[in-house]
Amino acid sequence: PIRYWDWRNFWDFGGGVLTDLFTHWIDVVHWFMESTIPASAFTMGARYRFPDRDCPDTLSSSFLYPGKFEVIFHTSLVSNLAGGGITIRGTEGMLRVERDGYAFYPEPEGYTESLELPLPSRQVRVARNDGTKDHLQNFLDCVRSRKTPNAPVFVGINAARPGQMGNISFRENRVVSSSSYTFRDDAEKGVCL
């Protein structure tokens, strides 16, 4: 019965947090950074809270994007505090993006280990909304109008690739290189690999 309810955490039916929660964040990173295929991926993790599942409930993944940046994804289902978000660190400051808004913190004058962040130079908070209704409405509108939706198929395919690479890395306990795969340039047509 658990496989019916929790299908996404069994290898026969899903890929755990990397093909579920992670895809909702990595597509935003791809959008911001204008890059979609990592050069390599490495994942390690374990099952601590949910030993009856196949997929790890706690993991750390690293994705290197060619010549541009690195994405580090840490997650653990052992607690619910601070459930998600993106932190982008750069030379000018740090951008923290959550589902209910964002804040930009300017880089301080010198190194600090303080838990206190400087006041954000820009912050926007919106009403708590996970976007599901907006996405569904956009999809239905596009079915009627035949226009391209806000998140076309290729966005989902590009968001799925890193998670799949991370899961291969975890299951085979090795660094996975995108050069080991032939990625086709026609993701717009719904082709994954």
Task: From the structure above, extract its key features.
alpha+beta; four-stranded antiparallel β-sheet; 193 residues; single chain; 8 strands
Please tally the β strands and state the result: 8
Radius of gyration over C-alpha positions, nearest whole angstrom: 18 Å
Point out poorly predicted stretches. none
Helix content: 25-40%
> Structural class per helix/strand content?
alpha+beta
Instruction: State which percent range the strand residues make up.
Output: 15-25%
Q: Give the averaged pLDDT, no decimals.
A: 88
Describe the biggest sheet?
A: 4 strands, antiparallel
Number of helices: 4
- Helix and strand pattern: HHEEEEEEEHHE
**Which overall shape is indicated by the principal axes computed on the Cα atoms?**
globular
The largest beta-sheet arranges its strands as: 3-2-1-8
Q: How far from one another are the termini?
A: 33 Å
Notes on the protein architecture:
This protein is of the alpha+beta class and 193 residues long. It has helices at residues 2-5, 21-33, 132-145, 153-172, and strands spanning 40-46, 58-65, 69-76, 86-89, 93-98, 101-106, 122-125, 176-177. The strands form two sheets. Strands 3-2-1-8 form a four-stranded antiparallel beta sheet. Strands 4-5-6-7 form a four-stranded antiparallel beta sheet, with no helix packed on it. A hairpin with a 2-residue loop joins strand 5 and strand 6. Helix 2 packs across helix 4 (153-172). The two termini are 33 Å apart.
